[in-house]
Amino acid sequence: MNRLSQPPMSPPLLAQAVDWAITSRRSIRAFLPDPVAHEDVVGILDVARFCATGVNMQPWRVHVVTGDMKLRLSNAIADIDNNPAYADTLLDPYEYYPREWVTPYLDRKKKVGWELYGLLGIAKGDKQRMHEQHGRNYRFFDAPVGLLFTIDRVLQQGSLLDYGMFLQSVMVAARARGLHTCPQAAFLKYHHVIAEVLGIPDEHMLVCGMSLGYADDSSVENDLVTEREAVSTFTTFHHNNKETRP
C-alpha cells in the first residue's frame, strides 16, 4: 500500500465518498447472517492501522471471533449476564462513562435510549425486555463477525485517544466495503470471561467490542438515526481578538 499515491478519483468525488463513509456510519443492532469475507476483515484492519498514533506507538490489539468461537464466547457471557446476583458485582476495567451524569450528556443518553426502546415497543419499566435487548450485545446482534479490542495496561490516556482513531478508521473502512458496525462498551463488564475464553494475557485490558456485518434493513431497530449537534453549537473561532460562531 503506497501511502504517497495520488487519489483514485477527482477531489470532489473523493470528498463525497469519504464524507459518505463517515456520515453513514451508525450503530447497527440487527445483522444479516450473510458471511463477511476474511479478506474484507483483513482489508479493513489493514487500512485502519494507518490512523494517527503518538510517536507511532500503535497500541491496538484485535481479536476476531467468528463461527463456533463466537458462539462459545457469547454463551459464556450470557450465562453470567442472566445471573444478576453475580453479574451485578462485576466491574468494568476502566470508567467509560462519567460517575455523575449532567446536562446535556444525560439528556442525550436518555433520548437515544427511549428512541430505541420506542422502536422496539419496550415500555418504560419493562426490565425483562430491556435486559433481553441489552443481552443482544453479547450475541453481537447476530453479526457474523465479532471484534474485541485490547490494549497493554502500561499505556496511558493518550493511547486510548489513539485507539479511538483506530476504531473510527475500522468503522469507516467497513462502510467503504458496504458493511456496518456497532461499537460496544457493553462487553467491558465481562472482560474476565472474554480474557479466559480467548486466552488474552493479564497485561492486556479490554477496550471495547464491535459487531461487524451486513445490516438487516428489515429490523425496526435499524431505523434509529441519532441526531447530532450543529457545528455552531460546539465550535468557537478565535480571530483578531474576537470570538465568533459559524
TrEMBL record:
<dbReference type="Pfam" id="PF00881">
    <property type="entry name" value="Nitroreductase"/>
</dbReference>
<feature type="domain" description="Nitroreductase">
    <location>
        <begin position="22"/>
        <end position="214"/>
    </location>
</feature>
<dbReference type="GO" id="GO:0016491">
    <property type="term" value="F:oxidoreductase activity"/>
</dbReference>
<dbReference type="InterPro" id="IPR029479">
    <property type="entry name" value="Nitroreductase"/>
</dbReference>
<dbReference type="InterPro" id="IPR000415">
    <property type="entry name" value="Nitroreductase-like"/>
</dbReference>
<keyword id="KW-0560">Oxidoreductase</keyword>
<keyword id="KW-0288">FMN</keyword>
<keyword id="KW-0285">Flavoprotein</keyword>
<protein>
    <submittedName>
        <fullName>Nitrobenzoate reductase</fullName>
    </submittedName>
</protein>
<comment type="similarity">
    <text>Belongs to the nitroreductase family.</text>
</comment>
